[in-house]
Amino acid sequence: MNSTCLKLILSLTLSAATAAIAAPQALDRIVAVVDNSVITEHELQSRLAQTLQQLARQNTPPPPRRVLEKQLLERMITERILIQMAEDTNIRFEGPQLDRVLAGIAQKNRMSLEQFRKTLEKEGIDFAAFREQIRGEMMIGRLRERDVDNRVVVTDAEIDNYLANPSLDADRKTEYQLAHILLLAPEGASPEQLEELRGKAERALAELKAGANFGQVSAAYSDAQNALQGGVLGWRSEAQLPTLFATALRDLKAGEATPVLKSSNGYHILKLLDKRGRDVTTVVKQTHARHILVKTNEVVSDADARNRLAQLRERIEHGADFGELARLHSDDLSASKGGDLGWLNPGDTVPQFERTMDALNPNELSEPIQSPFGWHLIQVLERRDQDVTEERRRLEARQAIRVRKADEAFDDWVRQARDRAYVEYRLEE
Predict the structure, then answer these.
(1) Radius of gyration of the chain (CA)
(2) Which structural domain range is residue 210 located in?
(3) pTM score, two decimals?
(4) Which of residues 130, 147, 164 is at a domain's end?
(5) 177, exposed or middle or buried, with CB in 10 Å at 0-12, 13-18, 19+?
(6) pLDDT of 210-254, one tens digit each?
(7) What CATH number did the domain enclosing 142 receive?
(8) Which DSSP helix (H) or strand (E) runs through 251?
(9) Contact 114, 102 (CB under 8 A)
(10) Number of separate domains in the chain
(11) What is the DSSP code string of 186-209?
(12) What's the longest Cα–Cα distance across the chain?
């Protein structure tokens, strides 16, 4: 081998070695520091690949790559802050619990978990990163439930005021399907910051008026948690919406968008996707039932629970009093009432229990059946058709007010958490 060939081989070898060393360094470049953790270029690009696939499945054209990268980085910073808060307060989702959630996602896509993993990797999505993202979403969901949703209180006075408002009568019969763009304002934002944010919102609205896809604009501008799902809020009644939103929507037609709306949280744009009427009179078939529950544990197996109930069933058929046996043997809180569950509406019980109960005639006993709570012996006492319109109105009012207050509280809570955190940007312009 001559010296020229040797030099060429050495040069190529050194170039390859240098590239092999340099590539991981570029891949793992830090793009943001968030309190005591970092976000790397690899994490950002993995999320970008996943997002582009998601937008493609939704037939939503993506915004410019650099714009989407910045939006994703902001989202990842917020997620990282919330995940750190969850971890610091011992919220964890690991191992089998997380695997079951991933298996459920795969099942919804009609795949096994292994097929789902291979499909993601074929599309350029790192499965480990996807798994970590799902873990983070679960932790944030539990954090929100504990620190925000569970602290929302709806009083009877609020329900009474809502139901007594005659201007809402027509709107109670109408539901709106909405999409939403949110630009969060920092806590204590200066007039200059607010003006800059409003300008950004006006640019987003101008793009919508020029015919841009709402999902694309949402992905490029919105700080909302569902920005990458087109900002879709689903169906909402007026009570579930802030007054600011409800007022702006009243005169809109399907397909139209509101002007830029200002709230204490920032700036909003709403698009009315559709509206529909609904029947406000409700008559349901109620069932008066009682049961005996035997819970399983380390000592009581499924077979033990089933056999105990089979023996109790035989005793009842031979004349023993159901209520007395329930008081003695049931593990449910209803035991003190002889197992009496009162009048049940459709959906009040778990599906396994309801299916069995619905198949029984009055005074008929079920066979022992299993639910997530344990094993049950069920008896139907009577049935009736009941007008529950007023009950339903109060329940819907409570739920609607709770949703509205929780959404507003969560946006404000996230903004405060974001403002308290230390964030250093290192993403190159």
Answers:
(1) 29
(2) 174-280+411-421
(3) 0.58
(4) 147
(5) middle
(6) 999 999 999 999 998 888 888 998 888 877 788 899 889 888 888
(7) 1.10.4030.10
(8) none
(9) no
(10) 3
(11) PTT--HHHHHHHHHHHHHHHHHHH
(12) 106
